[in-house]
Amino acid sequence: MSSITGALLTDLYMLTMLQGYFQQRMEDTAVYEFFVRDLPPGRGFLVAAGLEQVLEYLETLHFTDEELTWLTGTKRFTPEFVDYLASLRFAGDVHAMPEGTVFFPNEPILRVTAPIPQAQFVETRIINLLHFETVLASKAARCVLAAPGKLLVDFGLRRAHGAEAGLLAARASYLAGFAGTATVLAGKLYDIPIFGSMAHSFIQAHDNELAAFEHFAHAQPDNVLLLIDTYDTEVGAQTVVELAPRLKALGIAIKGVRLDSGDLASHARKVRKILDAGGLTEARIFSSGNLDEYTLRELLDKGAPIDGFGVGTRLDTSADAPYLDCAYKLVEYAGHPRRKLSEGKATLPGRKQVYRSYGTDSVKRMQADVITVEHDTQSGEALIRPVMQGGQRIHAPEPLVRSRERAADQLSRLPSDLYDLDAKSAYPVSVSHALEQLARRADKEVRAALISN
User: Fold this and answer.
1) Residue 115, Cβ density class (10 Å: 0-12 exposed, 13-18 middle, ≥19 buried)
2) Helix (H) or strand (E) run with residue 366 in it
3) What is the distance between the alpha carbons of residues 24 and 22, in angstroms, rounded to a whole number?
4) Is 324 within 8 Å of 40 (Cβ atoms)?
């Protein structure tokens, strides 16, 4: 797995900069922060995810002999630098918002404090992990809000952009409130409930639907969810009703049926009537097929009697918003605030904290956030917490179920206007006076340095 998860999973310029730091003996403490500049169109919030994978990466970071030999063979790096890499480990501190926390533009969700070679080198993988899981958790959260109380299952592995993406999508969607995933390995790795039924090919491989349904029921007597739209959806539902008494006599109950094509709302209404008339009032209707938060909302607005949904391709690729305008930027070096002033990409300097205030009603909805410098105490809840010190976790890894509970609590406390899938109002986030002062100080230092050049 070293080619997938090893130290070489980085951008080349991380290594070229590292050799520059090494040659100049630049090892003072640097502070970097990860944040998102702007929300994708229609989005009103994001859900932080991926911290667990980042901490695991930092704890285990090292170069193997095989990787060092390969680097030597590239002829790009000096032997002394390659020897230095052999002992490179992450020994810094990390502060972060816990996974499942709702956050907004320009709020740092992770801060790394370490000697600059270490803090710089980990940039690529940190962005890679936080970006992807946050994109997917945020997309999944929108599905949860669009279909409250419905069973939602991640169906997207086969069209995810690679194996790791599929696994992390299952994790992120469960964190955000999905009931589980069809990805079996995610069940093993993350203790996520797994769900599944059958494919159309199973039906086609039999001479008729009745035989296919009966054989599947005997193979999975505790999980009889039958796919009924291979040929004719309503005929498939009638076949289920015909089979039910025979299975019941054997102690096998039909849990439900799945619809995967056509006008799902119309078919669901017809199928519900057929099942109810046949005495299968407890059988659930589960639907899949190019679903996302918008189609979920449309189906439920139409009153479709659907109990659960498998959400696949559009979730695991976050089809309508597949990336975030995110960054991991230097905000302090050697005790001095650092600030990027590039046009359209200016950053805020210094180690920061985010405080969140809540309403006084029974729900205690989020009211406003303030971004300030680390030691400028504001009213409200401080969202950024220490999670790693000296390269080691401060606490044992948080169970995924705890992050899931936090996400559910956070989503329940969103301002009501942010439940809209096409959010038009922005949540209020302000910058404190102390942070504005620090920005002015950083600007003066930059101008002085430019003059001295």
Assistant:
1) middle
2) strand 366-373
3) 5
4) yes
Q: Look up residue 386 and give its DSSP letter.
A: E
Spans of the chain below 70 pLDDT? 1-4, 453
Q: 335: which 2 tokens?
A: 């005790």
Tokens standing for residue 245: 């008494």
| DSSP 8-state assignment for residue 195 | -
In DSSP terms, 35 is beta-bridged to 327
pLDDT of 410: 97
CB-based burial label for 65 (10 Å; 0-12, 13-18, 19+)? exposed
Amino acid letter, residue 428: P
* pLDDT given at position 36: 98
Distances in Å between the Cα of 266 and the Cα atoms of 43, 152, 281 are 30, 20, 18
Within 10 A of 129 (CB to CB), how many other CB atoms are there? 23
pLDDT for 1 equals 33
Tens of pLDDT, residue by residue over 356-384, are 999 988 889 999 999 999 999 999 999 99
Could you tell me the domains of the chain? 2-134+324-452 (3.20.140.10), 197-306 (3.20.20.70)
Cβ atoms of 365 and 415 closer than 8 Å: yes
Q: Are 37 and 106 in contact (CB under 8 A)?
A: yes
Helix axes 79-86, 12-23, angle to 10 degrees: 100
Parallel, antiparallel, or unpaired: how do β-strands 256-259 and 225-227 relate? Answer: parallel
